[in-house]
Every structure is written in C-alpha cells, then in structure tokens.
Design a protein that fits this description.
With 83 residues, the chain is of the alpha+beta class. The chain contains three helices and five strands.
Length: 83
C-alpha cells in the first residue's frame, strides 16, 4: 500500500488531499500516473494530455521511471514558478 498526496491546485481539482492505493510490484511513477489518468474525467484533465506535474517519493524529487515500493509516500504537485 502506498500513500498518495495531492497539493495546491491538484488538491482543488481532484477534491481530495490524499488516498491509499495498492500497486503491483515494480510499478513506476509513470504507471501510477497512467492508472490515475485512466479514471477519466477530472483525473484525465489533471494528469493526461502531457500535463506537467512534479512528483516526489518519500519527500525527494523523482522522475517518471522511479520505482514505487510498498509503504512509499508519493506526492504530486504543480510546477513552481518564481519571479
């Protein structure tokens, strides 16, 4: 079981701040994104169509090919811009 956290506008769009999910062994962040996108609707709008989303595993920035392990905490958040 993993814990998935959603921050900022993602939390608002999805109307949830967190959830727990079961993933197959060897799953990557990319496969998790595909699973979330497959829910359709607002999930498709948020994660599909090459939407830019930042990701962290256990509070460390991660890439789509990062393996997700049982017990991990995954965070999704929009890119941060500065000025």
């Amino acid at each position: 079981m993993i814990k998935v956290l959603y921050f900022a506008r993602l939390r608002e769009q999805l109307d949830t701040e967190s959830e727990q999910l079961e993933l197959a062994a060897g799953s990557t962040l990319s496969s998790l994104l595909a699973q979330l996108t497959a829910r359709g609707g607002v999930w498709q709008d948020t994660f599909g169509n090459d939407q830019l989303v930042m990701m962290a595993v256990n509070q460390e920035m991660a890439e789509p090919d990062t393996i997700v392990n049982d017990g991990d905490e995954i965070a999704f958040f929009p890119p941060v811009t500065g000025g």
